[in-house]
Structure formats: structure tokens, C-alpha cells
Design goal:
The protein has twelve helices and 15 strands. It has 382 residues and is α/β, with parallel strands linked by helices. The strands form three sheets. Strands 3, 4, 5, 6, 7, 14 and 15 form a seven-stranded mixed beta sheet that branches. A six-stranded parallel beta sheet has the order 10-9-8-11-12-13, with helices on both faces.
């Protein structure tokens, strides 16, 4: 499942998106380019600024949706994508006290990068990035740079959804959709860490085998029979795995046809977590025109008869509304990493110059867990 690419030695560059596209792939085709990026002079750094030599940047679903303005945060072109990245401190401003040249760091996507509202919006699809010193976190627990840049976004999402919103507890059973994706596999890891039983779904036997290796107790291939649309009926399998009772929690980052089938596989009073809608990415109009002409729909009769709690789980928006929820979440996740309880799985690594191939692979669902664009020294598969 691992994929690597051979880079061009010495290439220093950044990806630039000149306009938002009608769809992510149309934006890649028409408006994405690789441009030279010389190292910024150290003397131009502000007193609390840090120059990062970017080593790895996660290739995320949100990065793709932002190309067409179909994510809730609209970037202002021209911009460089890459929400979450890691690297080495290359230079520091005069008043930076907690970082030193050579430190291995993660850049906090809540503070810097193309999704933030502040001044530091440079993305990680680049060789260099200037960020404020308070955006840096040490790479924890022996993670490599590729693993580090696949930690915060995915695992904070999984934690917020499963623990803060879903109140998942030891001994409960959770049905996790899209379990081979970055946040889906993070949800598997988080659920197992708190002592839950995991039933994971996906559409590839090979990828589900990796999900099982990563800790899922049971896996279900949700693909519809050949020639049929939608998803395969899996409620009976779920009921059999739960002694006829149904699951306690559903983690739904997929949406579309799988949601209605899931409502028939839960116990009375279950919690249904709306995490995303990867199966129906074109809910909003392209080119940032907003609106939701293709919104997903849930059957309210099933919700009522099952006595369900349906919970929206927008991690970033919830944290913006109440910043106090983040510190304990982050502390717990970093402790779990240090304990070796969670380790991000990275299946694909690409040279930065192969960003187009990397993003198309993400769109096609080829990754298991995370994928990155990175410097040559980080291309070696592990």
C-alpha cells in the first residue's frame, strides 16, 4: 500500500492556486502551478517569526475542497494549499525564546496556514514557510515528519467527534464509516484507545485489511453489488456483531446512501455523529459561490422511531466558538502519542513537485490513513 516518488534534487518551490475552480480537479487542471521559492532572508523575520524548512505536508480532503471554494473557509487566491505541515526550524526572529534552529516541529493549523483568519496563511505545499513562534509544537513521541503532519487535524477531529460530542465510552460499540481515510482511521485509533469495540466500513477489501491491522475489531465492505447504486445492505451484519442490539454510536464522515442504512443498524437511543460528507463533496456550489443546493437528507421518521441523538460535529467551528475546549483535547492526544497509544498511519509519500498526482490520488481514495508531499529525505517508505 506504500507509494513513493523520486524527486528532482535541489528543487525549492511552492504550489500556487491562482483561481478557485468549479471542482477540485478542474482547479488542479487549470489553476495550479509549481513556482520557484527561494529561501526567505533570515533578516526579514519579525521578532516573533520563525522560518520553517517544510519537510512534509499532509494531503487532506479539506485541501481539495478549498481548491473549488466548496469548504466553509474560503481562501483568497492566489494562495498556497496545505493545511497541516511539519519541518525544521531554519531561522528565528530576535525575540523567539522557545525554539532553536534545527528543532523538529509541527505547525499548528489553528494558528497558521490557509484555513486561518490571521496574517500567517502560507500553506505547507512549499519548501519554506514563515510562521509565528506560538504556532509551533515539538514533534512528539518519536514520530517522523510525515506522521507528525497527519496528527492534529485528523486526531483532533476524531477526538472531538467521538469523545467530546459522542461521549463514547469503554464497552460501547461504534460503527465508523470511511475508516480507511485520514480521520476515519484516526477515529479507529481513538475509539480503541478508550476501550470501545470498532466496526469499520469501507469500499476496498485491501484497504479494510489494513484498517483491521490498525485495530478495528470487525470490518464490513459496504460496496453495492455490481451494477447497483448506493451501498450494500449491512444492517444484518451489524446486528449480528452486536447480539441483535445495534451499535451505540455511528461516526459518519461519508454521508449519502450509507447514512440511511446506518440508521437501521443502531440501538434505540444511539448517538449519530455527522462528521462530513465525503461521498457527496459537491454539496456547495463551485468557485466559492456558497449555498447548499445538493445538501444531504436524513429520514426523520427513522430518527424519531429510534430515539436518536443526531449530533453535528464541526471540530474547527466548535473550537472557534469555544477555544477553551482545545487545550484538554490537545493535551490528551499528545500524551497518547508519547505513550505510543496512537501513531498516525501514512500510506503514500510524494515529492512536492508531484503535488498534482498526490491530490488526485487523495481524491480517488487511494490513501489508507494519511498521505504527504515532502522533501527528498522524507520520501523513504516506512
Amino acid at each position: 500500500m506504500l507509494a513513493c516518488r523520486v524527486p528532482t534534487p535541489g528543487l525549492e518551490c511552492k504550489v500556487v492556486i491562482s483561481q478557485l475552480g468549479e471542482t477540485p480537479l478542474q482547479a488542479l487542471e487549470s489553476y495550479a502551478s509549481l513556482q520557484p521559492q527561494p529561501r526567505p532572508p533570515s533578516e526579514t523575520l519579525g521578532p516573533h517569526e520563525v522560518l520553517i524548512a517544510v519537510r512534509c505536508c499532509a494531503v487532506g480532503w479539506v485541501d481539495l475542497l478549498m481548491l473549488s471554494g466548496q469548504y466553509q473557509h474560503l481562501p483568497a487566491p492566489p494562495y498556497t494549499p496545505g493545511l497541516e505541515f511539519s519541518g525544521e526550524v531554519a531561522a528565528i526572529g530576535a525575540e523567539v525564546g522557545d525554539s532553536a534552529v534545527g528543532d523538529a516541529v509541527m505547525v499548528d493549523p489553528f494558528v497558521a496556514g490557509p484555513r486561518t483568519a490571521g496574517a500567517y496563511r502560507a500553506g505547507g505545499f512549499a519548501s519554506w514557510a514563515v510562521v509565528p513562534d506560538h504556532a509551533l509544537l515539538p514533534v512528539p513521541g518519536g514520530l517522523d515528519f510525515a506522521q507528525a503532519c497527519n496528527l492534529l487535524g485528523s486526531y483532533e477531529t476524531a477526538y472531538h467527534c467521538l469523545i467530546a460530542r459522542g461521549q463514547l465510552a469503554a464497552g460501547e460499540t461504534v460503527l465508523i464509516h470511511g475508516a480507511s481515510g485520514a480521520t476515519g482511521l484516526a477515529a479507529v485509533h481513538v475509539a480503541k484507545r478508550v476501550g470501545a469495540t470498532v466496526i469499520a466500513t469501507g469500499r476496498s477489501a485491501a484497504k479494510l485489511a489494513v484498517v483491521r491491522e490498525q485495530g478495528a475489531d470487525h470490518v464490513i465492505d459496504s460496496r453495492a453489488p455490481e451494477g447497483e447504486a448506493g451501498v450494500r445492505r449491512f444492517r444484518d451484519e451489524v446486528k449480528a456483531l452486536t447480539d441483535g442490539r445495534g451499535v451505540d454510536v455511528v461516526y459518519d464522515g461519508v454521508g449519502g446512501p450509507i447514512s440511511a442504512e446506518s440508521l437501521r443498524a443502531v440501538r434505540f437511543g444511539a448517538r449519530y455523529l455527522i462528521v462530513g460528507w465525503a461521498a457527496t463533496p459537491f454539496v456547495a456550489q463551485g468557485r466559492g459561490q456558497r449555498g447548499a443546493p445538493n445538501a444531504n437528507v436524513l429520514p426523520t421518521n427513522l430518527i424519531m422511531m429510534k430515539g436518536l441523538d443526531v449530533l453535528g460535529c464541526p471540530t474547527v467551528i466548535a473550537t472557534q466558538h469555544d477555544p477553551s475546549i482545545r487545550a484538554p483535547r490537545l493535551a490528551t492526544l499528545l500524551r497518547w502519542v508519547e505513550e505510543g497509544a496512537i501513531v498516525p498511519h501514512v500510506s503514500h509519500r510524494y515529492a512536492l513537485e508531484d503535488f498534482d498526482e498526490a491530490m488526485r490520488a487523495k481524491w480517488a481514495g487511494q490513501f489508507v490513513g494519511g498521505g504527504v508531499v515532502c522533501r527528498p529525505e522524507d520520501l523513504e517508505c516506512s
